[in-house]
Amino acid sequence: MKQRKNLKSLSNAEIVNLFEQLCIEQYDAMEGDEQARVNRLVWRIHDLEMELKSRPGDQRYELMRLFGHPNMQVRLSAAEANLAVDYASARREIQAIKDSQWFPQAGHAGMTLYFLDTGESKPT
Amino acid sequence: MLPKQSLPQSGRPRPLSARALACHIAGERMMAAFARFQAFAEKAGFNPDQPRVPAGNPDGGQWTGSDGSAQDGRSAIGGNGGPPLDPEEPPKQPPKEKTSRVKAAKALAKRIAQQLLRRAGPIGALITAIELAENHSQMHSVRSYQDAPKTLSELQQNAGKRRPGYEDHHIVEQGAGQHEGFSRSQIDGPDNVVSVPQYKHHEITGWYNKPNKNFGMQTPRNYLRGKDWSEHVRVGHEAMRTFKVLK
Lengths: 124, 247
What we know:
- The structure holds two protein chains of two kinds.
- Chain A contains six helices and no strands.
- By secondary structure, chain A is mainly alpha-helical.
- Chain A has a single domain, classed as Phosphatidylinositol 3-kinase, accessory domain (PIK) (Serine Threonine Protein Phosphatase 5, Tetratricopeptide repeat).
- In chain A, helix 2 crosses helix 4.
- By secondary structure, chain B is mainly alpha-helical.
- In chain B, the strands form two sheets. Chain B has a two-stranded antiparallel ribbon.
- Chain B starts with a strand and ends in a 5-residue tail after the last helix.
- The N terminus of chain B is likely disordered.
- Chains A and B meet through helix 3 and helix 6 of A and helix 2, helix 8 and helix 10 of B.
């Protein structure tokens, strides 16, 4: 909550930088099977995404500059954040992550595609 | 197993080129070398759980006896089983060391998988072999991570065998199953328990436990709560397929 309040004062560029940094931390936590840390980071990253979404015109497209990032978790989180903004581009990025077979992100990407295709997941 | 043809993005099959074939053979040779190394270590009586001298000591990393004495006797007076010459160092937070060892081994397992995917040449294989030797305590898990996806019956057949590098995985999760009121015999039944590579097991479990945008930030485990057995099985099978455990 505290973080959410402070996010208002950040520029889009600062949010994108923080998003990138937290995703890299999440990648590291996943490698170490630190589930509690992973989940805390997931929520912090989600807050950043929601902050961009709340800005006039939905500014989540700013995260698209992270497509193709060398860290697979940064790519995946940025792509998933953009499914409701630019479905085709985001889906292409998620498909590329799945095809890379760089796990576990490739697995998470594959499951996202599966649930999109079954209609159980609807991007918002 | 050697694929007869590769599938380009267009979906139209084309024959394997000579180069692709050579690369594939290199990959197979790397895996064979991997298996030989593992067999050699096992034959030599290698036990990854045997205690070792903590890092930071002059003998750091060397095997010790189960009582903590050095195997080659160098730290004992005259090697006659007397008291150690130097006072014992306090333990150096073994859990943390173990975490970083596992982390390094997982990174290596992934790199090997990527090398096999890219059909890396002999130099890549050599570097990998050196790194593998450095991570021998996790060797079984690094090796099992390279397994090709298997059929459901193959995975089921090996459940309960406690093979090194593998863990039993409940397709319908144990805890989740109890929430739904599924019977213990269903949960532990032969259809529901499969033997999967250890690191793959961690990856699948990690997916189940992580808040997921697809389910309004619920974890998949919570999303499945209240759903029937067949729904749990459907998602469980899909997860195993997507994480390349199940064919």
